Amino acid sequence: MSPGRLSLIATLALSVFTAPLAAEAQATTPKIGYLTSGEWPDETTLPLFLEGLQERGYVIGQNLVIECRHTEEASAERFRQFAAELVRLNVALIFAVSSAAVRGVRPASRTIPVVALDLESDPIGSGLAISLGRPGGNITGIFLDADQMNGKRLQMLRELLPRLSRVATLWDASLDPTLLKATETIARSFGVRFQVLSVRGPKEFAGAFAAARRERADAVLIMEGPFMSANTKQIADLAFQSRLPSIGIFPTFVKQGGLMSYGPNVGHLFKQATSYIERILKGARPGDLPIERPTHFYTAVNLKTARALGVTVPSSLLVQADQVIE
Question: What is the arithmetic mean of pLDDT over 250-273?
Answer without folding.
Answer: 95
